[in-house]
Write a structure and sequence with these properties.
alpha/beta, Rossmann fold, 3 domains, 6-stranded parallel sheet, 20 strands, about 35% helix
Length: about 575
């Protein structure tokens, strides 16, 4: 009679599901699993903080279309990973989190790393959270967890395996079998598809906004085929950048370009929301991105998302890939939208014009962030995977971020969490060793997990980090000053730190750059070094991105209450007046 423990059964189950990489940080609770991973062909990538391990698993999922896996120990290991779990939940990213807990037989004895219910804590921010009490059930529970992570609306799941369950051997013959991992998504109903196609073909100025739902599974090939046939302008939200090659004639880049298009006097008369949610990244209730007058076709695997802010003229609760395949199979001819596409693509560039004529150095003598971002992105081109971590740094970088890899631009999501960049970069580089990965981060964001350069060195991950060092929490101080006036910054200033010296001390490569002409060469030297590298750019703190005026806008009417980053509260109505 052969006996195995739950750690061995867990490693076997993951291997059977095609898992090759697990992001982790050591904890003794996990040792039976960690020991079993190498003999089952699973690589362990250990980080210096559990949050980073979780964010790395997120990036692995986003750039591969598969479930990412993160293993963290009990108690503080779990709590350290909680930001990542919430981030994955809000951004609908499939990640399996594995954690442990004190022995079941010692519950309520005030033992080490216990005393609170991790499963209960995880439940609000996961698709499913479960405590394993029988080691022989590991294989079928892992299968269930993976299906819950990937099926329907993707999202994180958590398996808690108490340490005594992990370490207790069981008769191998009692172990349940794995029960399958393939998850199919529904295709649109024929009558709904017909209504969508009829409405689409009647449009004179249609546009597609692709979101994160196009990544799981990836429908990049189908979207490109539709764009080739129709020339419908395609815009993407943050998670979907790279769904079309950069130079594709229908690629109009970020969804904000739809707002820019409307300022030129043109507006789409129909928008196809393809796996993109109504909300912050599609203009909320403002109508600035999706015109209120435009017809709306919304495709989402989660029916509850359809019509969240405004009613869809055609609601398709189905998979994005399956919907595109059904559209492509329709034999009817498509209208010629090429002229409209050319106009839409041309409108995606003018946002650069107000800044292009400005000097490369700001009044303070430090680098203007617009020119620094342009020089940086020009230096490495669209073939890299880019992670962007920061407030205003993200806004400046968003002007130039581009990738020809689906999911190839990884940004802060609905949680708005800073500090995600190092984990995203590690996960993307592990998933794609054939590509270069570049992290662009503000000096505030980079301080969360700067020690992860050590992780990059230990695992031979030649990631280049570019720091926009403006000696401040830029979005914070500019927001404070936008509301309260010049000099109103409170706990929003930082020291001018030599971050590149930290990289060198940890075994990487580093340069500090204050001269515009040296930005590109410094980045090229960093890429050529073959080491994890950090380029510290001296950015002017006094330059404010125009997005701040939209996010922290002044009151437009007497009595209006300014609410930074959200909608302002309108003044109370006068007697007899209608309420907004």
């Amino acid at each position: 009679m052969a006996k195995v423990d739950a750690g061995e059964l867990l490693a076997r189950s993951l291997a059977a599901a095609g898992v090759h990489d697990v992001f982790a940080l050591h904890g003794g609770h996990l040792d039976s699993f960690l020991q079993a991973c190498p003999r089952n062909g699973i690589r362990l990538i250990d980080t210096r903080h559990e949050s980073t391990a979780g964010h790395a698993a997120e990036a692995y999922a986003r750039t591969t279309g598969q479930v990412g896996v993160c293993a963290i120990t009990a108690g503080p290991g779990f709590t350290n990973s909680y930001t990542s779990i919430a981030n994955a939940y809000l951004d609908a990213v499939p990640v399996l989190y594995i954690t442990s807990s004190p022995p079941l037989r010692e519950v309520e004895l005030n033992v080490l790393q216990g005393g609170f219910d991790q499963v209960a804590a995880a439940t609000p921010v996961t698709n499913w959270a479960h405590r394993v009490t029988s080691p022989e059930r590991i294989p079928d529970l892992v299968s269930l967890a993976l299906r819950k992570a990937y099926g329907g609306r993707p999202g994180p799941v958590l398996l808690e395996i108490p340490i005594d369950v992990f370490f207790t051997p069981v008769d191998e013959r009692l172990a349940t079998p794995t029960t399958g991992f393939d998850v199919s998504r529904p295709a649109p109903a024929p009558e709904v598809l017909r209504r969508a196609l009829d409405l689409l073909r009647q449009a004179e100025r249609p546009a597609i906004v692709a979101g994160g739902g196009t990544l799981f599974p990836s429908c990049a090939a189908e979207l490109r085929q539709l764009a080739d046939r129709t020339r419908i302008p395609v815009y993407t939200t943050g998670k979907a950048h790279g769904m079309l090659p950069v130079e594709h004639p229908a690629n109009c880049r970020g969804a904000g370009g739809l707002g820019m298009l409307q300022t030129t006097g043109a507006a789409p008369d129909l928008v196809l929301l393809l796996g993109a949610r109504q909300g912050m990244y599609t203009g909320g209730r403002s109508g600035r991105i999706i015109p209120n007058a435009a017809k709306l076709i919304q495709v989402d695997i989660e029916a509850a998302e359809i019509g969240r802010i405004r009613e869809a003229d055609v609601a398709i609760a189905a998979g994005c890939r399956e919907t595109l395949q059904a559209m492509l199979a329709d034999p009817a001819p498509w209208p010629d939208w090429s002229g409209w596409a050319d106009r839409a693509k041309a409108a995606s560039g003018p946002f650069e014009q107000p800044f292009a004529a400005l000097p490369a150095a700001a009044a303070s003598g430090r680098l203007h962030p617009f020119h620094a971002a342009k020089a940086a992105f020009d230096s490495f081109g669209p073939d890299v995977i880019v992670t962007i971590d920061g407030g205003e740094t993200g806004a400046w970088s968003g002007m130039f971020s581009r990738s020809s890899a689906p999911g190839g631009v990884l940004t802060n999501g609905y949680l708005g969490a800073l500090g995600v960049g190092f984990g995203f970069a590690v996960g993307a580089q592990v998933a794609h060793p054939e590509r270069r990965v570049v992290q662009v981060a503000g000096d505030g964001a980079v301080g969360f997990h700067l020690q992860e350069i050590d992780t990059m060195v230990r695992h031979n991950l030649p990631i280049v980090t570019i720091v926009f060092n403006n000696t401040a929490w830029g979005m914070s101080i500019h927001g404070q000053e936008g509301i309260y006036g010049a000099g109103a910054g409170v706990i929003s200033r930082l020291k001018d730190t030599n971050y590149e010296q930290v990289a060198i001390a940890l075994g990487g490569y580093g340069e500090r750059v204050g001269n515009f002409e040296q930005i590109g060469p410094a980045i090229q030297r960093s890429l050529a070094s073959g080491l994890p590298a950090l380029v510290n750019l001296e950015i002017a703190p006094d330059v404010v991105h125009p997005l701040m005026g939209m996010m922290v806008g002044p009151a437009s009417r007497p009595g209006e209450i300014v609410i930074p980053y959200y909608e302002n509260i309108p003044p109370p109505p006068e007697d007899g007046a209608a309420i907004d």
